[in-house]
């Protein structure tokens, strides 16, 4: 399936801007996604990433996200760190390799929180920036989104934001806005694996 073609069909059916709750993993990843969607949605960014460790790294990324959103004039929805939610979700999968069975659990945790908050606050759509990363499988992320769409009766915006130079554009915008770009996904497991490579 071409997720971006499906996204374009949805967007082209609009008769005005819709309200989108966009889960963001970090400022750099959100930059090109916001640029791509801002003409079609009133975007609010949710920064819910309880997987990011240590806590100093979490706050560093969060501050960069907020700084970028202020420059772009995009709404920000704050949420607590809630690191224990991540660790509870991945019990038994701690030793999985990067991109193994642990990662989809992490995607689902963050996307489900987004869907629930979007539903509770009358958003028209929910989505995530996760598909902009070349290291994350858009197929799995979109399958999670569709499952949550059905569970919460709220449309999920299909996407593969890395395509059509989306990832390349995020690097360009990161340089333009002088954004901090981390060198590991977020959890200490990915940091350990990255350091071993």
Comma- or semicolon-separated keywords:
single chain, 197 residues, alpha/beta, Rossmann fold, four-stranded parallel β-sheet, 8 helices, globular
Mean pLDDT: 94
Structural class: alpha/beta
Low-confidence stretches: none
Output the number of helix runs: 8
Task: Walk me through this protein's architecture.
By secondary structure, the chain is α/β, with parallel strands linked by helices. It has one domain: 3-Layer(aba) Sandwich (Rossmann fold), CATH 3.40.50.620. 51% of the residues lie in helices and 10% in strands. The chain has helices at residues 3-12, 27-37, 55-72, 83-89, 102-120, 138-152, 166-176, 188-196, and strands at 18-23, 41-46, 75-77, 125-128. It has a four-stranded parallel sheet with strand order 3-2-1-4, sandwiched between helices. Helix 2 links the parallel strand 1 and strand 2. Helix 2 (27-37) packs parallel to helix 3 (55-72), helix 2 (27-37) crosses helix 7 and helix 5 runs parallel beside helix 6 (138-152). The protein is globular. It starts with a helix and ends with a helix.
